[in-house]
Every structure is written in structure tokens, then in C-alpha cells.
Amino acid sequence: MYIVLTGAKKNIGDFLITERCSQLLKHHKPEHELIQLPHWKSLEEHIDLVNESSGIIINGGPGFQPHFYPGIYKLMPNLKDIKVPIIPMGLGWKGIPGDYLTLKNYSFNQQSLNALSRISNEVEFISCRDYLTKEALKRNGINNVLMTGCPVWYDLDSIGKNIERPKEIKKLVFTPAQDHIYRIQNVKILKMLKNLFPDSELYCSFHRGIEADEFTSKADEKNNMAIKREADELGYNVVDTSYNLDKIQFYDDCDLHVGYRVHAHLYFLSKRKTSILLHEDGRGRGVSESLNVRGIDAFERTSVGYIADRLNVPKVSEALKTMFENIRPNSYAIEMLEDYITEELTTNFARFAGVDKVIDAHYDVMKKFIKSLP
């Protein structure tokens, strides 16, 4: 029996991670029952069950953050009460903005670093989802890390199949950014895609939903509604794809994804379909570098942001970032994206040839990791 900690609340990407993790574990460790629990809650009321298990598996997501424990993962107030291994599976970093300077300065608070050291010492391998994450962990003294890719890389029915390079874009999905600073950039991309594909069926898919609820703030709703209005006026099919994986089944009938949502990008590639990712931060950059598929930086550093990270004096750097903008939308992103799409249409998406082999090669690494589980 494994205790599987899931981050699935509303964002459909987290539900997709949970599903793909479960599929991989059931396929390669069928003798183990999987008990799912939310990672944002303490394990105190389940501690007896936890200690009867073979281990705690933390589902993928950007969990390797400076406040890893107990900020992201509550686990137990005293980790000594957990008597079984804690095993991250396909976790990633969340470097902002996500360039080399971010990586160079990336660190964990002491409580998180202590927890990661304990985790590392109790298992043969920790699994991470991209090479930037692996480097960030290495720089913090965590060395027994396998870059397995995110579990969402792996649709078991698609392993060994070739990438589908579409000759025509009949249906296209756009996923908008979460950060409000990209609202205008989102709208410009909606218009650009409409101009490039005037006869295609276009979708605007909100992975984290549109309207406010316990997981979506009023400010997020206002931002989402502004993007939705523009998409409606341009003739997009606007879809709230939060909470339920059935809502993204229509992706299987689409030819191309363009957008900011990492797990829309990974879903398409896992199904051997083409996708172009805009990077909001280091999460997207890590994916693109690891899969050897070009992405577009949606951001650029401000002068203050650059100086703040060059100083590498945490209190001063954070104060500067609080007082001034650290990043802003990349003024060349739209032009770069349009050129990218136009080139791929001309070459029948030649740039994507081989991404299927990259995924399949890393599937062998994922199998090695799963085989190492207790």
C-alpha cells in the first residue's frame, strides 16, 4: 500500500498529474493499493495508516519550492512521527522568472532543506520533472535525483508511437496565462491566432476555471472575465476545464495547442500532438529544455529585477522585488510566437520530429524510478 499525496483542488493540471501518477503506479506496481490524501492537509489523523504503508508518494507538481515543508506539504508537525519513506514523484521547481540567475540563487528555507535531506537519505532516488529542477536540487546538496519527466509526459497507450505533425489546423486550443500581468499579451495572442487561423475551430480553455470560488479569487475572476470577453468577441469557444478531466477530452480531437498552461502542453505531447508553450516562469522553461522543444519566454526581466537577483542578499532582494516589478511581459513575445507558428506551418512542424523519442527514452528512466520504490 502507498499513501499518494495529491494536489488536485481545481486546476485540471493537478487532476491530470494525479491520474497519470496513478496509472503509472498501477501499471508497474500492481500489487500496491493506492490511498489518496490531499497534500495541503496534515497527516495526523491518518498517521497509523501512513505508518502501515510502504511509503508516501508525493504526486508531481511545482512542489520543490523554498517553503517545501511545511508550506507546500504539511505532512506532520514532527517528521519523526512518519516511520516510512517519503518519495517525491515528478516534482518540479518554481523559479521566477526562471533563467540562469534564478537557478543560481535558488534555495530552500532551513526547515525545507532539513526535510529534503531526510527524504533523500531514505530512498534510492528522488524523481523530478525537468533538468532545471535537478540542477536546483543539486545546488542545494540533494544529489540522488533522477530526471524522470512529469508523469503527464506518459500516456501509456501512446508510448512508442510517432508524433502527429498536422498538415492542417482544423481545431486549435489556446490556454491563457494565470498571472494578471499577461492579460494584454493574452488578448494579443487571441487576435493573432484568429488572424492566422480564420477558418479553424478555436477554443480558449481555462484550466483553473473562470469564476470565483474557494480556490479562485475575485481578482482572478475579473482577469479571467476580461480575457473571456475578448475570446467571445473573436468567436472562440470558451471552456471552463477545471475540476473534471472529462472536460478536456475534446483535446484529443484538436490539432494544435498554443498557450501558457504547462499541463495542456504536456497532455498534447503525451498524446503525440503538437503544442507550443509560452513560459510564465521556470516551470515552463524547465519543460521546454528537458523535452528539447522550443518555447517562448512570455516574460523579460526589469532592471530592478536583474539587480535584485544579482545582489543575492535575500532580504534586500525580496524588498526590492516587493517594491518594484521584477518581471514584465516580453515585448517581443507575440512577434516571436507568430514567426514560430508560421515556420512550423511551412515545414509541417519539422521541429517536433523526435520529441516522441525523447519522451520514450525518459519513460525508461521513469520505470527505473518506479522499480526502486519500496
TrEMBL record:
Pfam families: PS_pyruv_trans. InterPro entries: Polysacch_pyruvyl_Trfase (IPR007345). It comes from the Archaea. Residues 11-276 form the Polysaccharide pyruvyl transferase domain. This is Polysaccharide pyruvyl transferase domain-containing protein. It comes from Methanococcoides methylutens.
